[in-house]
Amino acid sequence: SPAIVSVGRPVAAKVTVRAAEAIAGAKLQWEVRTAYLKTVAGAVQDAAIAGGESEQAFEIPALDADLYYVNVWLRKDGRTVDWGSATFRVTGTGSIPVIRMSQKGYARGEPVKGSVEVKDAPAGAALDVQLVDSWERIVASRKTAARNGENRFSIPLDASIAGLAFSVRACLVADGRIQARANFEFPIRQPVP
User: Fold this and answer.
1) pLDDT tier for residue 149 given thresholds of 50, 70 and 90
2) What is each CA distance from 162 to 9, 59, 159, 169, 182, in whole angstroms?
3) Rounded to an integer, what distance in angstroms lies between the CA atom of residue 10 and that of residue 63?
4) What is the pLDDT of residues 6-21, one digit of tens each?
5) Assuming Cys at both sites, which of 33, 137, 141, 146 could form a disulfide with 127, CB separation 3.0 to 4.6 Å?
6) Could you tell me which of 15, 4, 87, 9 has the C-alpha nearest to residue 54?
7) Closest by Cα among 89, 87, 117, 112 to 101
8) Is 62 exposed, middle or buried (0-12, 13-18, 19+ CB in 10 A)?
9) What is the reported pLDDT for 125?
10) In the structure, what pLDDT confidence band is assigned to residue 1 with cuts at 50, 70 and 90?
11) What is the pTM of this model?
């Protein structure tokens, strides 16, 4: 299987199974997760396991640009016989080489400001800048037309939002798919009043 695939294209995946003898009634379970552990695809299918080495194929649906983990389990009667994991990256058109923040941290209620550098943005692309808390909730966002070079942002943050650790996530969106993304983590000082 390729380690790098293109946005919007399904991935023909396969796993090699080595067994001392045939395993009748085996199932192959697989799931795809993002780096933030969100499951985005998965299935359970019958697996024909003969003695020796055999390949089991499955198709991962088209995904947005990101780093992904694929976990695979070989199961028999609901029990795990063997398992494995691998990573792969989905890439699109354009890139976000860097997110720059206007300062190292922000006081509660202070607008979060910075810029997102975009390279080779597809025609008509949008830039979606999200503020995400440590529980993976999007607490604020701004979407604008993407342009190559520096794209400034200012996201107001309600003072009542709890948490100390936040991320700015920038996504370059074109043709209904995320073509590139980047992340920057930073603190929000002062506890909730």
Assistant:
1) very high
2) 39, 40, 8, 18, 23
3) 7
4) 999 998 899 998 888 9
5) 146
6) 15
7) 112
8) middle
9) 97
10) very low
11) 0.83
